[in-house]
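Lecture notes, continued. The same structure-token format from the folding unit now serves as the input rather than the output. Read the line below as a description of shape only.
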């Protein structure tokens, strides 16, 4: 993935998620919402098993 997704892009595909949430749930939600493969891949390799907030997701994806 050449560029990390922006927080706005992430939340577009993660709408309706209740935090805290597992990485598996985020990946499933992103796929169900039609996220592109590179965004799903970034979530899968985010390096965390759970997230407490959208900010946690953005920070983890930025570091992947």
């Amino acid at each position: 993935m050449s560029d990390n997704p922006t927080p706005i892009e992430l939340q577009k595909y993660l709408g309706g998620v209740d935090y805290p949430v597992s990485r598996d749930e985020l990946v499933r939600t992103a796929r169900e919402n039609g996220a592109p493969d590179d965004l799903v891949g970034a979530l899968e390799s985010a390096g965390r098993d759970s997230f407490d907030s959208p900010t946690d997701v953005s920070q983890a994806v930025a570091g992947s």
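Point for the exam: The chain has a mean pLDDT of 90.
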